[in-house]
């Protein structure tokens, strides 16, 4: 993405899970600025770490420091942020991780949408016990 979209600063927003410390270290070495949120473990065993507010706030904190933002998400909760960035001519692209599974709200911005389906092999993270793929964390990448 750095070459294709001229990304100079990349934020990755995710819930903190101690077992993934090596992944976090690897992402930081690759240049990502990680923004963590504490997680909750649900009765089902699922870990929840909703980062929507952090992404919106960081996008606005950085607002004067980027020409255009590249938002990576499939979540319709960012509709108002994407709409605002379009109105201010500050949105470069809305990058959606999975073309087959994303909210209907980003469909309204189809001229900005790009899909990451063909990047899965390039974006995988290998752990000692196999391959682990991220759960579609949200990111705000500024160029």
Q: What's a quick, concise take on this entry?
A:
The chain has about 140 residues and is of the alpha/beta class. The protein has helices at about 1-5, 20-30, 50-60, 80-85, 120-125; strands at about 10-15, 30-35, 40, 45-50, 70, 90-95, 115, 125, 130, 140.
Number of helices: 5
CATH class, anyone? Alpha Beta
Mean pLDDT: 79
Provide the number of structural domains.
1
Order of helices and strands: HEHEEEHEHEEHEEE
Rg, nearest Å: 15 Å
Summary tags:
143 residues; alpha/beta; Rossmann fold; six-stranded mixed sheet; two-stranded antiparallel sheet; 25% helix
Topology overview:
Elements: H1 2-5, E1 9-15, H2 21-29, E2 32-37, E3 40-41, E4 47-48, H3 52-61, E5 69-72, H4 79-87, E6 91-96, E7 113-115, H5 120-123, E8 125-127, E9 130-132, E10 138-142
Parallel strand pairs: 1-2, 5-6, 6-7
Antiparallel strand pairs: 1-10, 3-4, 5-10, 8-9
